[in-house]
Amino acid sequence: MEDPTNYKYDVAISFLFRDSAMASEIQERLSRSLRVFFFPREQEELAGTDGMETMRVPFRTGSILSLVLFRRGWGETPWTRVEATAIQERCLATGWGSAFFLMLNNTDAPPRWLPETRVRFNMQDFGLEQAVGAVKQRALESGARLSDSSIRQRARLAHLETERIALQTQCFGDVRWIVSDAEPHVLGILESCQRAVAELGEVGISCRSAFQRFQFVMTNGVISVSLGWTLRYTNVMSGLRLSSHIGQLVLPGERSHYLFGGPPPIFEEREISPKLGYAGDLY
Hints:
Rossmann fold, globular, 10 strands, alpha/beta, 2 domains, 7 helices
């Protein structure tokens, strides 16, 4: 059993650059009670050192738990390749309990060296709040201790949250920000949905799908799923509406019509509310 007091960090976070905003949000939440290594906040520590070797240390010998925000491509970029090697070496030496993988995309296959154990957590199924809770629980099981926030730390976090809410209120009511930042982000989500359907086809799951402007639909002829974004007002940010239907929906851009005068009935519907993170990015 390793002595947790020997480690500088409780959690070290590894992620792809595209997931920096989510990593920053997770880091902010974990840092309220745990010691966290997060590369963008530790650049001063890396200055003047051998970067590759320095990036190995937190994941190989410097932290109780290595947290991986995993999606396809992780472990293939220069930085994450170094981190992945260090994490794998650590696991082989001390056991798989030292690693925790947040699977950001349910369709992405994890690394082949990762065993089928409890070290995985599907982000899409449980969301950010439960993911952070699961990471904390794993860190505690591995020997980390939650620290009480000092008055100064609590004041800093309260100030950050106040700034985040103020920025979110400002942006969500600014038509220029909605057009320049929110619209590309929503389009990126719909494009990723379209790619996911193509990947399902590669493993033998047949679905038809299409997206046009801000509407995505997929169907297998029996059940359909629709994900759409409609601004009720041009200067008021709204969420994405997700609905499931019993029957086949007409795909966006498809020249067709419903035989009985309307789309198939909805059996589940909910709105996914947007949020602006501490880093100023929408998620």
